[in-house]
Give the backbone structure.
Amino acid sequence: MDSGLEILSEITDVKTIAVGRSIRELDRLQRMYGKGRWRKLKGVATVRLADDAVVFAEIHWYEAHGIGRKDFKIKRILGK
């Protein structure tokens, strides 16, 4: 989570967006973190931004079994 983003609550309403070859950044993920069954997911959580603001946001990330969750990013701020 080097994006200046700190997740403060449990991620809820988790949905899978893409799996395997349907992930556009699959080659980059495998180069950076290793081969695995990569999935792109989305969910909502309370997060702290780089400027210390706390907001409720939709977040996206990638994860693979044995590797973990990587590359969190905020897609939409839903409320303060």
